[in-house]
Design a protein that fits this description.
Structural class: alpha/beta
Length: 482
C-alpha cells in the first residue's frame, strides 16, 4: 500500500482525467495519486509519464491511504450514475473534513443533492466546473468551484496552481456554495452555444451574400480577431475555414455533415432560465438551431417549400461584411448580458453570493468563450456591482449604439434572402423589447383575465383588478394573490 504522500488525487483517467492529473503533477508542490476502475488505464498513464511521479492506487482503500489529510480527490468520470457510484465508494474510505470534488459536467441540481447528502457524513463535496476541453485540462483550464468555505481553504491553492492565468490572475474563484460552480459552468456553456451560432450565422451570411470561399472568409475572421471581436472562438473559426480536406481537396467545412451535436448543457441553461423567468433568447435559439440541424428527415421533407424569388447578392461587399461584424458584436453583447442575468437570478433563487465581475475575469483564459471584451464586463461590474442589465453599461451601450443600424440591416437582409439567422434576429428582438417604453404584454394580460380571471394591475392606481367580461364589463378590485 502506498505511503500517505499525495496532496491531491484524481479518480477517472480517461483523456480529461489523465490530462488534469498531468497538469497537477507538473506544478510545484503537488504530488498526485491516481485511480481508475480499469487498472490498465492507471498502468498506462504511470508508464507513459514517469516524470509526473504519480502514486498509483488499485483500490479505493489504497487511494485513500495514499492521500495526506485532509484528503482531496477530484472525480473525472462521466456525469450521472457513474459519479454517484464513485462518490459512494469514496465516502466509505474518507473521513470528516476530507474533500470530494466532482470535476465533470454535472447538472447543478444533482450537485446540490450530492452536496447535501455528503455533508451529512462530515465530508466536503465540491462541484467544480472545468472549462477548456482536453487542452485546457492539461495546460490550464478555467475552473468554477462551488462548495464550502472550509473546502476552499485546502482546494483553492491547488486549483490556482493549475488554472489558466490571464493578466497575472489565475482563472479560478470560489463561486459559491453547493451547486453554484456547476450552475455557472452550465451558463458558460449556454453562452458558448450562442457565441458559436452567431459566428456560424455571420459566416453563412457572408458566404451566401458575397460568394467568397471559406479560405477567403477565414481571412476576414482573422482580421476580426485583431479587433474588438478578439476571442478564442473567432481564432479557431479562421483555422477551421482554412482547413482543406486531404481526401477530396475541398474545404473541410463543405465536407462536414451540417448537423450540430449537443451534450445537454445548452438545454439545461434554457430550461433553468425558463424556470427562473429569465429571457435567454439568444442561447435558446442557438440550442434550437442545433436541434433543427439534427433532423435531416424533416429538412428533406421541407426542402421544396418556397423561398424568396430573387437570388441574394450584396452590392457593396465590404460594407456588408462590416455590417455583419457589427451585428455579430452587438448580438454577442446580448448573449453575455442574458447569461449574466441568469447567473444573477440563480444566485438569488438558491442563496449564492456570486461575484459577477469575478466570473467574467476567470473566463478570460482557459475556457472556450475567452475573449477580449470580458475585461469590459469585469470593469462594468466593478463600477456598478448591482448593474441591472449588463448591456446598459457605458462601454456596451456605446457599442450597441454604434452597431444597431448595421444589425438591423443584416437581419433585414437575412429575412429578405431567406437565410436563417435565428440568433441574430432574436438578439435584436430582445434588445428592442428590453428598451421599449411599453410592450404589448398589456393585451396579453387582458386576454389572461378574460379567459382565466388571472387579474391585472393598472397604471393609474394601486391594487389588483378583474373585469367581469360577460354582461356589462364591470371592473372589480380583486384579492391580491401575487
Amino acid at each position: 500500500m502506498p505511503n500517505a504522500a499525495a496532496n491531491i488525487g484524481v479518480v477517472g483517467l480517461a483523456v480529461m482525467g489523465s490530462n488534469l492529473a498531468r497538469n497537477l503533477a507538473s506544478r510545484e508542490g503537488n504530488t498526485v495519486a491516481v485511480y481508475n476502475r480499469s487498472r490498465a488505464k492507471t498502468d498506462e498513464l504511470v508508464a507513459a509519464h514517469p516524470e509526473a511521479g504519480f502514486l498509483p492506487a488499485f483500490s479505493y482503500e489504497e487511494f485513500a491511504a495514499s492521500l495526506s489529510t485532509p484528503r482531496t480527490a477530484i472525480i473525472m468520470v462521466k456525469a450521472g450514475a457513474g459519479t454517484d457510484a464513485v462518490i459512494d465508494e469514496l465516502v466509505k474510505v474518507f473521513e470528516p473534513g476530507d474533500i470530494i470534488v466532482d470535476g465533470g459536467n454535472a447538472y447543478f441540481p444533482d450537485t446540490i443533492r450530492r452536496e447535501r447528502a455528503v455533508r451529512e457524513t462530515g465530508i466536503n463535496f465540491v462541484g467544480a466546473g472545468i472549462s477548456g476541453g482536453e487542452e485546457g485540462a492539461l495546460t490550464g483550464p478555467s475552473i468554477m468551484p462551488g462548495g464550502s468555505d472550509e473546502s476552499w481553504v485546502t482546494l483553492g491553492p491547488i486549483l490556482k496552481s493549475i488554472a489558466a492565468v490571464a493578466e497575472g490572475e489565475p482563472c479560478v474563484t470560489h463561486v459559491g456554495h453547493d451547486g453554484a460552480g456547476h450552475f455557472v459552468k452550465m451558463v458558460h456553456n449556454g453562452i458558448e452555444y450562442a457565441d458559436m451560432q452567431l459566428i456560424a450565422e455571420a459566416y453563412d451570411l457572408i458566404r451566401r451574400g458575397t460568394g467568397k470561399s471559406p479560405a477567403e472568409i477565414a481571412e476576414i475572421f482573422a482580421e476580426w480577431n485583431r479587433g474588438e471581436l478578439e476571442s478564442y472562438l473567432i481564432e479557431i473559426t479562421a483555422e477551421v475555414l482554412r482547413q482543406v480536406d486531404a481526401a477530396t481537396g475541398e474545404p473541410l467545412v463543405d465536407v462536414i455533415v451540417d448537423q450540430a451535436g449537443a451534450k445537454g448543457t445548452g438545454a439545461w441553461t434554457v430550461q433553468t432560465a425558463l424556470a427562473l423567468g429569465v429571457p435567454v433568447s439568444g442561447i435558446a435559439e442557438a440550442t434550437f438551431a442545433r436541434s433543427l440541424s439534427s433532423h435531416p428527415e424533416q429538412r428533406a421533407a421541407a426542402a421544396g417549400l418556397p423561398g424568396p424569388s430573387e437570388a441574394f447578392r450584396v452590392v457593396d461587399e465590404d460594407a456588408f461584411i462590416e455590417d455583419v461584424r457589427l451585428a455579430l458584436y452587438a448580438s454577442k453583447i446580448v448573449a453575455y448580458s442574458q447569461g449574466f442575468d441568469e447567473i444573477r437570478a440563480g444566485a438569488a433563487e438558491y442563496g449564492w453570493n456570486i461575484d459577477l465581475g469575478a466570473i467574467s475575469k476567470i473566463w478570460r483564459g482557459g475556457c472556450i468563450i475567452r475573449a477580449q471584451f470580458l475585461n469590459r464586463i469585469a470593469e462594468a461590474y466593478a463600477q456598478t456591482p448591482d448593474l441591472p442589465v449588463l448591456m446598459t453599461a457605458p462601454y456596451f451601450a456605446e457599442a450597441l449604439t454604434r452597431g444597431q443600424d448595421a444589425w438591423r440591416r443584416v437581419v433585414i437582409a437575412a429575412a429578405q434572402a431567406g437565410i436563417p439567422a435565428p440568433a441574430f434576429s432574436s438578439s435584436l428582438s430582445y434588445y428592442d423589447g428590453i428598451r421599449a417604453e411599453r410592450l404589448p404584454a398589456a393585451l396579453v394580460q387582458g386576454q389572461r383575465d378574460f379567459f382565466g380571471a388571472h387579474t391585472y394591475r393598472r397604471i393609474d392606481k394601486p391594487g389588483t383588478f378583474h373585469t367581469l367580461w360577460s354582461g356589462d364589463r364591470t371592473e372589480v378590485e380583486a384579492e391580491d394573490t401575487h
